[in-house]
Amino acid sequence: MAEPKSGKARKPARTAVTDKPGPKGKPTSNRIAGSSVPASLADEIGLRIVRGDYPPGTILPNEANWTDMFNASRSAVREAIKMLMAKGLLSSRPKIGSRVQPRDRWNLLDRDVLSWYAASPDREVFLRTVQEFRHIIEPEATALAALRRTDEQMAEISQALHDMEHAGSLQQRTQADTQFHVAILRASGNDLLVPLGVLIESALNHLFVHVTREGDSLQRAQKLHENIEKSIRLQRPNTARSAVRKLLANTDEIIGQGPS
Q1: Which of 49, 35, 55 is nearest to 84 (CA)?
Q2: Could you report the per-residue pLDDT of 109-138, keeping only the tens digit for each?
Q3: Secondary structure class of 31 (helix, strand, coil)
Q4: Please, are residues 72 and 31 in contact by the beta-carbon 8 Å criterion?
Q5: How far apart are CA 215 and CA 260, in angstroms?
Q6: Any residues with CB less than 8 A from the CB of 243 and at least 6 apart, and which?
């Protein structure tokens, strides 16, 4: 996946929380603005949970409190809580309320949870967690891709590599980089890796935003990706496995350097 860098972390897109004027122009409570109020509420509350405002075991404010805090209807709050329960962040019991679940119950492969995790103070932990996951999955998946890829899948991998080299911005390069690695997972021919690739796409995007760099580092990353593409094209699984490990080691090094 991508190895270049952008300096500041890009925060996940979120619906703004604004103040609604009260009588005589005085602010009353925060108001969630947006086309989907329940989703916006879930986004705001979910981010607060993941970044540690409400640690595991905490009983969250009740519906009336959230209603006053965000000037939203109780039905919207109720729907937002259901969304967070579906993501494993909350459990709810009558007369007790919504309790924050232990972190090991959170669905970290959920796109929203990944976005909140990437925007939290534990960002470096997030990056290292993604990297560990890549070390476990990608070398063998790439070796399988070298053995099993079809001509169409090879064309998709090669196109992503081309798009990386000719990207007009770091954002475009990051997107192409993600597509390169997801295409390899699909080419592995393992049915379990295909949906997994879709799920981790968000994680890879967040990772590459933090580690994509310009200049010499970008050129080195491109060369490492070219070696992977060549190994898959020539159907050399051992070489492909080794090429991915070199790429991952390069990314590990950049993460260890911190922001440039």
Answers
A1: 49
A2: 888 898 888 787 877 788 888 889 899 999
A3: strand
A4: yes
A5: 12
A6: 142, 224, 227, 228, 231
Strands 27-32 and 17-21: antiparallel
d(CA 90, CA 121): 20
Q: How far apart are CA 3 and CA 216, in angstroms?
A: 11
- What does pTM read for this prediction? 0.73
pLDDT at 171: 84
Q: How far apart are CA 85 and CA 98, in angstroms?
A: 9
Is the four-CA dihedral 43, 44, 45, 47 of positive or negative sign? positive
C-alpha 222/C-alpha 3 separation (Å) is: 8
3-state secondary structure of 260: coil
Neighbours of 122 (CB within 10 A): 15
Average pLDDT over residues 218-236: 95
Instruction: For the chain, list the strands marked E by DSSP.
Output: 17-21, 27-32, 90-93, 97-100
Q: What is the pLDDT of residues 148-186, one digit of tens each?
A: 999 999 999 999 999 999 999 888 998 899 899 999 999
Q: Rounded to an integer, what distance in angstroms lies between the CA atom of residue 42 and that of residue 24?
A: 31
Cα–Cα distance measured from residue 40 to residue 33, given in angstroms and rounded to the nearest whole number: 8
